[in-house]
Amino acid sequence: MLRALHIRNYILIDSLDVDFPEGLVIITGQTGAGKSILLGALSLLMGARADASVISEGADSCVVEGEFDSSDETVRSILDENDVEWDSGHLIVRRVVHGSGRSRSFINDSPVTVAVLSSIAGRLVDIHSQHQSLMLADHGFQLSILDHFAGNGVLLGECREAWTRLQSLRAELNAARERLSRLAADRDYNESRYARLAAASLRPGELEELEAEQRQLANAEEIKLSLNGVDELFNPQGDSGRMGLSAMLKEASRQLSRISRYVDVASITERLESARIELDDVESELEDINSRVDVSPERLQTVEERMSLLYDLLKKYSCSDIDSLIAVRDELSQALFDSSALDDRILELEDAVKAQSGVVNAVAAKLRKNREAAADGFARSIEESVRFLELDRAVFQVELRPVEAGPSGADEVSFLFSANGRNPVDVSKCASGGEISRIMLCLKAMMARFAEMPTMIFDEIDTGVSGSVADKMGTMICDMGKSMQVFAITHLPQVAAKGDAHFLVSKGVGERVTSTMKKLSPEERVMEIARMLSGSVITDAAVANARTLISTL
Q: Are the CB atoms for 49 and 95 separated by under 8 Å?
């Protein structure tokens, strides 16, 4: 229930702090006093859209805060999921709107999203505004009322969950089919491209190796000539009488050893020996290189043909190196594999969709059975309530029609109504404004009873009625207030007289127009109801009538 409301700088409300009791709370005030502004502030707490226009003139921001008591486990679960303290069900909900138009929301001082506010709003307060009577023509609204009566809450949860799973599977199946279609369109092309790359037997670093080998083969004769020239320097041939480099160094070492007794040349001898050994090693390596250099026009042609193939592939596939070509080849291989794998996955998804459709249909069948079983009792209950409100010959019926399965099952419901008892038709096509008000009150009373709503707010639901009908509507609202908190914003004294507490909204005029709200004392309440009876001039008869209305409670 709504324990208290605190408002700062909201449109015409500068400051308001008001506590509300249990039972039936009456709110009255002259037209334009600000009752709708009060509802707007409360709607803001319920997640309604906010913008800077709600901020009072001259203020930087506005704040609306409500204190609620709740025992709803679903509300507790939502708060737990969002790391908000439960505080034994005492909830302080606050919404702050800044001059930029942006707003911030809090529950028990923990910041939350507007989506969280909206998710718990329907479990804290049900606001029936004047325009909501239009919902009576909404088949979805009609179905939800019947489901409340039938106690289909758990089944509806199962149906929504099963439907969500089915939609997810269908989306995945459609995506798989679209991908397969795209792959199929490109399959022949991809197979051709992959075959060419696969036939090339690509390996990382091959092109660099081939380029190095090609340079060597193309210059093999020059390389051989230079290596042989170096070898001639190391080991002179023929009758030149020249010694080789190694022999010359060895002879130098021998000559130095002869004078080593007279001169210290040991270190020089060691260096010469080291140089000789190094030159022998260089000579050995050059011989090895020379033996590996092959003057082979056939091999050169093979290497250049391979390089030409690789260069063509790099150009054709817009790649900079062999590693990129290998990546393209692997991607094409994966695409071709995916095509085969997608065939299998599509078969799996088709089976899953079929099975999940069966689950949805099974839950929908249970919902239909419950709805069919509840329809007559629901119709009789609403019919009795409407007749209590002086539509003595009224007929109310519930018509169920099968439709394609959805998150609420596979049924569409229509409420049929006739005020004179003949040929009932869709309620939105036959009921007058006063009849709509009475039907909506009966439906809301039904919802309050079966949905266990802690607080319900009626904004002039008695529009279009008067006299004894208004009195009976007041009685019905009063009866609702015995088991829950009910707010009734009304212009009818017959309804206002039924309340457990009475609040007056009024407009004050100072430097600017403002709206205020206060709880009336017993005598102030008498005078307010007398004003509602007689208008601006309160007569003694109106006061006496007001006392009579209050005393009949």
A: no
DSSP helix/strand/coil, 231 = helix
CA distance 21 to 24: 8
Question: Residue 511 has what pLDDT?
Answer: 67
Q: If DSSP codes are grouped into helix, strand and coil, which group holds residue 225? A: helix
pLDDT tens digits for range 305-345: 999 999 999 999 889 899 999 998 888 777 766 667 778 88
- At residue 119, the pLDDT reads 86
Burial of residue 44 (number of CB atoms within 10 Å: 0-12, 13-18, 19+): buried
Whole-angstrom Cα distance, residue 92 to residue 63?
Answer: 13
**For tokens 């190094």, what's the residue?**
278
What secondary structure does DSSP assign to 363-386, as a single string?
Answer: HHHHHHHHHHHHHHHHHHHHHHHH
In the beta sheet, which residues pair with residue 25? 487, 501
Picking from 22, 56, 25, the residue whose alpha carbon sits closest to that of residue 505 is 25
pTM over 0.85: no
Three-state SS annotation for 417-452? EECCCCCCEEHHHHCCHHHHHHHHHHHHHHHHHHHC
The three-state secondary structure class of 347 is: helix
CA distance to 103, 255, 437, 504, per residue, from 132 (Å): 26, 123, 10, 24
Residue with tokens 């798989």: 176
Domains within the chain, CATH numbers bracketed: 1-125+454-515 (3.40.50.300), 185-337 (no CATH), 520-553 (no CATH)
Report which secondary-structure segment, H or E, holds 190: helix 153-199
- DSSP state letters, 504-546: EEEEEESSSEEEEEEEPPHHHHHHHHHHHHH-SS--HHHHHHH
Q: How far is CA 143 from CA 284, 321, 488, in A?
A: 98, 66, 25
Report the percentage of the chain scoring pLDDT > 90: 32
Place of tokens 């190391």: 234
Structure tokens at 124: 């804290």
Burial zone of 463 (CB within 10 Å; 0-12 exposed, 13-18 middle, 19+ buried): middle
> Which residue in 379, 400, 211, 221 sits closest to 306, CA to CA?
211
Measured in Å, how far apart are the chain's first and last C-alpha atoms? Answer: 23
- 505 close to 33: Cβ distance less than 8 angstroms: yes
DSSP 289-346: HHHH----HHHHHHHHHHHHHHHHHHHHTT-SSHHHHHHHHHHHHHHHHHHHHHHHHH
Distances (CA, A) of 520 to 20, 81, 481, 528, 529: 12, 41, 19, 9, 11
Annotate 394-421 with three-state secondary structure.
CEEEEEEEEEEEECCEEEEEEEEEECCC
Q: Say how far apart CA 405 and CA 412 lie, in whole Å.
A: 10
Residue 353 CA to chain centroid, in angstroms? Answer: 23
Tokens of 134: 């239009």
User: What local confidence, expressed as pLDDT, does residue 133 receive?
Assistant: 52
